[in-house]
Amino acid sequence: MKTMNRHARILALSCAALALALPLQSLLAGRPTGRFIDLIDQAMRDMPVRRTDDARTNRGAASSDSTRLLVENWNPQGCGFTDHAQFSLPQATRLDRIDLWYNWAQQERSSRYRLANTNGRVFAEGLLARDSCDPYQGAWCVATGSPRISLPAGSYTIQTERPRVCQNPASRGQGFIKAWGSSSKSSPGSAQVVPLLGSHWTIYEEIPGGRNWKGSWIRGGSSNTFDAQWRDSLTGQSFTDVIELREITVNTVRLYRQGTKGFYSGTISPDRKSIRGGASWFPQGAFWTAQISRD
């Protein structure tokens, strides 16, 4: 018992010392504090890469033993805002995870991003998820995504939909970014461009026994949302729902269906005109397909 009390006293004194080290002014400031960023930065560097929310648990690519920190430009100085972050890869690389230091709106949980090279060639697009936050300034949180894509050597830009990524002179005006990955077995230039989302998807879903649903998903402008409609082959009944694109890479796609609160996943064809896969609520043997129209 004495040993346990001594350890508790040491822990309490350590916590008190840390609290005193954070000046009151930094806790009340309207931007991320330098010392706090140092602390969370070190903690994130030391802890293993892991997945916590639903969208990332199913991917889990960055937990590989070969994954390492590739890029980092975070620093403890105050922030301005930008809508992009740039990084360079000296060799062909498998990019598994990206983190940005992002200022989120109150109810915002995700934000779209696009990954392209300096020539404007798009390699991936998807959603960044809201993750670890500053406990004193809840709007400042990590925005994390998992591209899971092999990239040739070169320079790249992560473009966000809003200019809320932290940047300062110490980062040379570039958004704060960390990236994890590993050496890629793909030869330089072997990555393909992700498919265009198109404007209209013709959908077919079938379960064992021959029952099927034929549908049409209409994309809302240039958004990642589709207004969907199907007809049941058994009853003839029509119904609607909303589909949200959550992730798209070189050869895979993942979409969220609001009504079922589940996910479609699929493999994109080599010509990038069709998709085939399953869904989280499908029974064994069921499948769905999509034909992509760009008219």
Question: Layout of SSEs?
Answer:
Blueprint: H1 2-21, H2 24-28, H3 34-46, H4 54-57, E1 68-72, E2 80-82, E3 84-89, E4 93-103, E5 110-117, E6 122-133, E7 140-145, E8 149-151, E9 154-160, E10 165-167, E11 177-183, E12 200-206, E13 212-219, E14 225-232, E15 238-248, E16 252-257, E17 262-268, E18 274-279, E19 287-293
Antiparallel strand pairs: 1-11, 2-10, 3-9, 4-7, 4-8, 4-11, 5-6, 5-9, 6-7, 6-15, 12-13, 12-19, 13-14, 14-15, 15-16, 16-17, 17-18, 18-19
Report on the architecture of this protein.
With 295 residues, the protein is mainly β. The protein has two domains: 29-183, no CATH class; 200-293, Lipocalin (Beta Barrel). It is 14% helix and 44% strand. The protein has four helices and 19 strands. It has helices at residues 2-21, 24-28, 34-46, 54-57, and strands at 68-72, 80-82, 84-89, 93-103, 110-117, 122-133, 140-145, 149-151, 154-160, 165-167, 177-183, 200-206, 212-219, 225-232, 238-248, 252-257, 262-268, 274-279, 287-293. Strand 18 and strand 19 form a beta hairpin. The protein is elongated. Residues 16-65 and 186-193 have low confidence and may be disordered.
